[in-house]
Amino acid sequence: MAKSIADNTDLRLKTVLHVLTEGVWSGDSLNAGEVLAEATARVPFGDHEAALLSGGIPRGHKTLTSATAKLVKAGWLVKGRSGWIITDDGMRATVAFPDADSFAAALDAGTPVPADVAVPAAPAVKPA
């Protein structure tokens, strides 16, 4: 797990894109709540993030929902009434920025995805 709340949030943002990409590959259409739930299941809240705010929502959930605006601003995610849709650039970003640090740096700096990075057509095969 990442060391700080900001690191955890960046890792969850990357996970949001991974979950949406997996949905494209499988043909599953996930709503925003399902995407966020999966991201927080894969990168659980720390004690401070799990604390409930006055509205009964965990602090980390509120932080993550607000932070998804960065993905929209980068052009990697489109939020619509019918749900969230990952863009081709969003899928390419999961490949171009493979670790949480490079992903966060690219997102914060507004670094575009390099043009030579292909849209992933299937999950990367991990060596055994």
What descriptors fit this protein?
128 residues, mainly alpha, Arc Repressor Mutant, subunit A, two-stranded antiparallel sheet, 6% strand, globular
Q: What is the compact description of this entry?
A:
With 128 residues, the chain is mainly α. 56% of the residues lie in helices and 6% in strands.
Secondary structure elements and pairings:
Blueprint: H1 5-26, H2 32-42, H3 47-50, H4 59-74, E1 77-80, E2 83-86, H5 88-96, H6 100-109
Antiparallel strand pairs: 1-2
Descriptive notes:
This protein has a single domain, classed as Arc Repressor Mutant, subunit A, CATH 1.10.10. Helix content is 56%, strand content 6%. The chain is built from six helices and two strands. The chain has helices at 5-26, 32-42, 47-50, 59-74, 88-96, 100-109; strands at residues 77-80, 83-86.
Order of strands across the widest beta sheet?
1-2
Order of helices and strands: HHHHEEHH
> Helix- and strand-based class?
mainly alpha
Please write the CATH class name: Mainly Alpha
Q: How many H/I helices? A: 6
Assign the CATH architecture: Orthogonal Bundle
Radius of gyration: 14 Å
Poorly predicted runs of 5 or more residues:
none
Mean pLDDT, all residues: 92
Distance from first to last alpha carbon: 22 Å
Instruction: Estimate nothing, just give the exact number of structural domains.
Output: 1
What summary fits the major beta sheet?
A: 2 strands, antiparallel
Give the proportion of residues in helices: 55-70%
How big a fraction of the residues is strand?
5-15%
Number of DSSP strands?
2
Shape: globular
